[in-house]
């Protein structure tokens, strides 16, 4: 399944979405946003798919928005039917694990989209920047809220107010990414982890992501919520399969 500048493939329970516009450093057009939104949303409804992975071709994840389309005087933000807004809503509302393999520069939305990913892996030559201030713009994708939660308020202020590049050492240290791999090993390692996730109990995985993404609440309320879900899960087919596999000394099968 392929669309212009976006390649989509499904393997071992993982939908791989590749930004494929190397001549423009994978800068994202409206058509690309629309295709990615459709691919992410479609994966939520496909029971055979358990996770979604985002990446780019070559040595650039994405240079961000295509400036030609972005500077169009008719361009707008905030309208639900706009391709970029559909993409932002898709990554915001994705129920299944969303991963990214960052293979080089991640500029603008190339970095802010990572704040919605559950797991982010990067090549050792990756670099991250949110240069909105340098364009006289505001950050998007709820990054002014999510970035401080991820990296801390002082580091978020530095990143958004200066708009500088940060390397993988800095990104790893501040918790923006999970792990760094050599560029030639990134996709194999990232897909390996995505496929491990895809083999986990799917309903339990969705519940864990939902808990992690919920708005803050008191420890007592969260404990009560977890306890109620824990009790329900004890009676689930997934838990019974895991227990049966343990006693039968075999790997559990959550594919059904």
Molecular structure report:
By secondary structure, the protein is an alpha/beta fold. It has 2 domains: 197 residues, 2-enoyl-CoA Hydratase, Chain A, domain 1 (Alpha-Beta Complex); 46 residues, no CATH class. The chain is 44% helix and 17% strand. It contains 11 helices and 11 strands. The strands form 2 sheets. Strands 1-2-3-4-6-8-11 form a 7-stranded mixed beta sheet, sandwiched between helices. Helix 1 runs parallel beside helix 3 and helix 5 crosses helix 6. It starts with a strand and ends in a 9-residue tail after the last helix.
Features:
256 residues, 2-enoyl-CoA Hydratase, Chain A, domain 1, 2 domains, 4-stranded mixed sheet
The total domain count is: 2
Residue share in helix: 40-55%
Strand order of the largest sheet: 1-2-3-4-6-8-11
- By CATH reckoning, the class of the largest domain would read Alpha Beta
Q: Quick one: CATH superfamily of the largest domain? A: 2-enoyl-CoA Hydratase, Chain A, domain 1
Rounded mean pLDDT is 94
Task: Return Rg in Å.
Answer: 19 Å
Poorly predicted ranges (pLDDT <50, ≥5 residues)? none
CATH fold-level label of the largest domain: 2-enoyl-CoA Hydratase, Chain A, domain 1
Q: How can the largest sheet be summarized?
A: 7 strands, mixed
Structural class: alpha/beta
Q: What percent strand?
A: 15-25%
N-to-C span:
24 Å
CATH architecture of the largest domain: Alpha-Beta Complex
Q: Helix segment count?
A: 11
Categorize the overall geometry: globular
């Amino acid at each position: 399944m392929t669309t212009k500048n976006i390649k989509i493939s499904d393997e071992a329970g993982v939908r791989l979405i590749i930004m494929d516009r190397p001549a423009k450093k994978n800068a994202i057009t409206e058509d690309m946003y629309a295709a990615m939104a459709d691919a992410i949303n479609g994966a939520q409804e496909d029971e055979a798919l358990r996770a979604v992975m985002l990446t780019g071709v070559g040595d650039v994840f994405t240079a961000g928005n295509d400036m030609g389309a972005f500077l169009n005087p008719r361009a707008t933000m905030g309208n639900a039917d706009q391709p970029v807004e559909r993409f932002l809503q898709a990554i915001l509302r994705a129920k299944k694990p969303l991963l990214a393999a960052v293979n080089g520069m991640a500029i603008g939305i190339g970095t802010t989209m990572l704040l919605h990913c559950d797991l982010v892996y990067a090549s050792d030559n990756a670099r991250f920047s949110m240069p909105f201030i340098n364009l006289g713009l505001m950050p998007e994708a709820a990054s002014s809220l999510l970035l401080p939660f991820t990296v801390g308020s002082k580091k978020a202020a530095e990143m958004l107010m200066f708009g500088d590049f940060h390397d993988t050492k800095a990104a790893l240290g501040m918790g923006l990414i999970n792990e760094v791999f050599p560029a030639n090993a990134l996709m194999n390692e990232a897909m390996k982890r995505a496929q491990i996730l895809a083999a986990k109990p799917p309903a339990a995985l969705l519940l864990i992501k939902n808990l992690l993404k919920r708005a803050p609440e008191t420890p007592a309320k969260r404990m009560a919520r977890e306890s109620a879900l824990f009790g329900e899960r004890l009676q689930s087919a997934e838990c019974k399969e895991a227990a049966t596999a343990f006693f039968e000394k075999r790997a559990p099968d959550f594919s059904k």
